[in-house]
């Protein structure tokens, strides 16, 4: 243990031979995306006191809490069925190459099945190094569909 000195939040001096800490995280409920954004973050710490042959955990010396506001996750939505999405914006939003975004746009993909067929065909015709990149793009696009950034209606 290390000897620690300082001031508590009520400005009282403290000294200890060890500290404990705890973090608490609560998440927004009934929000999308669920379990991904904290509604409350709390950090606490306190001291241990040596009581003969054992250590006793003391009360919290300091705690800090914040409650972040749930952010607005509004962003572009790319409707493949309508086909009116912008290649540059799609490429930047999903962090994929512009050439792959152009290929998707030029294929006139209007359903998830069309998209799966397109990716399968690209994987079959590609080299090993291209396969890794296409597999990564596939994961990114699947995430876009799951997060409703890419839709087909």
Can you walk me through this structure?
Strand 1 and strand 2 (13-16) form a beta hairpin. Helices cover 33% and strands 31% of the residues. The chain has 153 residues and is of the alpha+beta class. It has helices at 87-94, 98-106, 112-125, 128-146; strands spanning 4-7, 13-16, 19-27, 38-51, 54-66, 78-79, 150-151. Helix 1 (87-94) packs across helix 2 (98-106) and helix 3 (112-125) runs antiparallel to helix 4 (128-146). The protein is built from four helices and seven strands. The model has no long low-confidence stretch (mean pLDDT 83).
List keywords for this structure.
153 residues, alpha+beta, three-stranded antiparallel beta sheet, two-stranded antiparallel sheet
List the helices and strands and how they pair.
Layout: E1 4-7, E2 13-16, E3 19-27, E4 38-51, E5 54-66, E6 78-79, H1 87-94, H2 98-106, H3 112-125, H4 128-146, E7 150-151
Parallel strand pairs: 6-7
Antiparallel strand pairs: 1-2, 3-4, 4-5
Helix pairs in contact: 1-2, 3-4
The total of helices stands at: 4
Low-pLDDT ranges: none
Q: Pairing-aware structural class of the strands and helices?
A: alpha+beta
Roughly what fraction of the amino acids lie in strands?
A: 25-35%
Secondary-structure element series:
EEEEEEHHHHE
For the CA atoms, what is the radius of gyration? 26 Å
Q: Please summarize the sheet with the most strands.
A: 3 strands, antiparallel
Lateral strand order in the biggest sheet: 3-4-5
- The portion of residues assigned to helices is 25-40%
Tell me the distance between the termini. Answer: 62 Å
Mean pLDDT over the full residue set: 83
Q: How many β-strand runs?
A: 7
Shape, principal axes of CA atoms: elongated
């Amino acid at each position: 243990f290390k000897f620690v000195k300082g001031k508590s939040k009520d400005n009282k001096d403290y000294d200890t031979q060890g500290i404990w800490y705890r973090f608490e995280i609560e998440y927004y409920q009934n929000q999308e995306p669920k379990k991904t954004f904290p509604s409350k973050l709390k950090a606490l710490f306190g001291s241990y006191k040596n009581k003969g042959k054992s250590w006793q955990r003391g009360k919290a010396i300091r705690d800090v809490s914040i409650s972040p506001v749930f952010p607005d996750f509004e962003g572009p939505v790319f409707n493949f069925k309508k086909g009116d999405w912008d290649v540059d914006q799609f490429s930047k939003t999903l962090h994929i190459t512009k050439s792959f975004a152009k290929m998707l746009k030029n294929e006139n993909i209007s359903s998830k099945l069309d998209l799966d067929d397109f990716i399968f065909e690209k994987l079959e015709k590609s080299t090993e190094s291209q396969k890794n990149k296409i597999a990564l793009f596939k994961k990114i696009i699947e995430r876009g569909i799951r997060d409703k950034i890419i839709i087909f209606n």
